[in-house]
Design brief:
Strand order of the largest sheet: 2-8-7-5-9
Order of helices and strands: HHEHEHEHEHHEEEEE
Structural class: alpha/beta
Distance between the termini: 35 Å
Oligomer: single chain
Number of strands: 9
Shape: globular
Number of helices: 7
């Protein structure tokens, strides 16, 4: 059994192995700060990680998915961070199975107005895959991560949750002004958000 404090390291290695990027991951470990923090998940977003590849890897790992679009790379074009545009990077989120409670009932538009740095769809999918590979469980079984760091072509905001009834990870969307108690973004903790 994987200890909670090991999740952010061990499962990322397995996730990158399944993505066919073990060598890239090992090289990145030499460049990025690997200091563990019991309160945070440290996520390595490496150049070469794309949404469609993440979806394929979920399915190869035995996880069923419902997707709003069959080609997420084509449909999700606006991201606060993108390793294929900006280069590889490290980003940290609170070690919460459910998305950050303090962000409930806040729309993507509201988060944008406050210049919040929030999770992108690619970050959420990699985080969820890595968590599943370490624990056999899924993030967001009760609530939904609103990926306010990304937008669909038509302006909608991706959302991800575990649908226990259908036993699948659902990637859907909400309007940019949509808000609800169960819709919650995950705030970037490191690098720290400027005003959130």
């Amino acid at each position: 059994e994987v200890k909670e404090t090991q999740i952010s390291d061990i499962n990322l290695a397995k996730a990158y192995e399944l993505l066919g990027m073990s060598q890239e991951y090992e090289e990145a470990r030499k460049s990025f700060d690997l200091t563990e923090d019991k309160a945070l998940w440290k996520l390595f977003m490496l150049k070469g990680v794309i949404l469609n590849k993440l979806v394929k890897t979920y399915k190869e790992a035995g996880v069923q998915m419902y997707l709003y679009s069959d080609d997420l790379d084509k449909e999700v074009t606006d991201n606060q961070r993108d390793p294929n545009r900006d280069g590889s990077y490290v980003v940290s989120f609170r070690r919460n199975v459910e998305a950050d409670e303090e962000n409930k009932n806040q729309s993507a538009d509201q988060r944008k107005e406050k210049n919040c740095q929030d999770i992108t769809l690619a970050e959420r999918l990699l985080l969820g895959l890595a968590y599943f590979l370490a624990t056999g469980k899924h993030l967001d079984a009760k609530d939904t991560t609103l990926c306010t760091g990304s937008r669909f072509l038509f302006g909608g905001v991706p959302s991800v949750y575990w649908d226990a009834g259908f036993r699948e990870v659902d990637v859907f969307w909400d309007g940019p002004d949509g808000r609800h108690d169960c819709l919650r973004s995950r705030s970037v903790v490191s690098p720290p958000p400027e005003s959130c």
